[in-house]
Amino acid sequence: MTTATLSRWDRFRDSFFWYSFKRDKVAIASFLVLMLMVFAAVFAPLLAPTDPYDLTQIDIMNSELPPVGLSGSDAAFPLGTDAQGRDLLSTILYGTRVSLMIGFGAVVLQAALGILFGLLAGYLGGRVDAILMRIADVQLSFSTLMVAIIVGAVVKATFGSLMFGEIAIYMLIFIIGVSEWPQIARTVRASVLAEKKKEYVDAAKVMGFGTPRIMFRHILPNTLSPIFVIATVQIANAIISEAALSFLGLGMPETQPSLGSLIKSGFDYIQSGSWWITLIPGLVLVVLVLVINLLGDWLRDVMNPRLYKG
């Protein structure tokens, strides 16, 4: 490594952030589990025994096989198979990748909108602030699921199920991202209202810097701490929203597995004894959301010294 790289690593190693992380066993365990799940999802094509998108690798005669260890299981399918004969381990790996893509994509979109509108409302104030915050109030009066159900139903009725399946992932990112931006916008606005009264902002104005430069290069970096915390928690919320919509039939189709669509596909088979089709993806979803929320809680405490007790 170069001297500059070593210097950055030394600063990070000596920072309070690293000190608090290595002393928090829950944060370490959550981070390791999350990284393991992200790694498995990213490299799903290499790790999965079969490709659930390849119909030539699916045999309907292998449908509803139980996990290894139960009567009637097949060693070729460690976690069993679903009603379509797909290997459940493979569909979970691919499904986790889809759920993470939707979660991260939706948070990037809502962060971009929230930061932009929050900066404009907080820095410009006046009529711009009033209009943007009223829009945010109206947006908050509708839940994410309500907006997604309405938009999803309209898109599905307009373009048909086939077209809906092709654009489902992009539609979910858009719906969840647009529905949740007011929370970030309000947080950024509150931080900007405090920051714009400080001397460095006055100095930037005296030096003749333009409004965009002051907002994005001077004020924004000092408002990022709460955004990181909110974004971490919102990733988990976005994944849950995708699972709920898929379970209602307005998210990912069963032919494109996500954790939500996998849970939905096996729900009708619980009474027949094929509980693993729903239970195993459900446990993966619970663990994924749990570790993200635990990391979000730790990040919130570390970035707020009044709360941190490590």
Automatic annotation (TrEMBL):
**Keyword annotations for this protein?**
Cell membrane, Membrane, Transmembrane, Transmembrane helix, Transport
User: What membrane topology does the UniProt entry give?
Assistant: Multi-pass membrane protein
What are the subcellular locations of this protein? Cell membrane
Cross-referenced CDD domains: TM_PBP2 (cd06261)
Signal sequence bounds? none
Span-the-membrane segments of this chain are 26-48, 98-123, 135-155, 161-179, 227-253, 273-296
Q: Name the InterPro entries on file.
A: BP-dependent_transpt_permease, MetI-like, MetI-like_sf, OppC_N
- Superkingdom per UniProt: Bacteria
The answer to whether the entry has keyword Transport is yes
Where in the numbering of this chain does the ABC transmembrane type-1 domain appear? 96-296
For this protein, the record's Pfam families field holds:
BPD_transp_1, OppC_N
Q: Does the keyword Transport apply?
A: yes
Q: Which PANTHER family match?
A: ABC TRANSPORTER PERMEASE PROTEIN, OLIGOPEPTIDE TRANSPORT SYSTEM PERMEASE PROTEIN APPC
Q: Which family does it belong to?
A: Belongs to the binding-protein-dependent transport system permease family.
Q: What is this protein called?
A: ABC transporter permease
Gene source species: Marinobacter suaedae
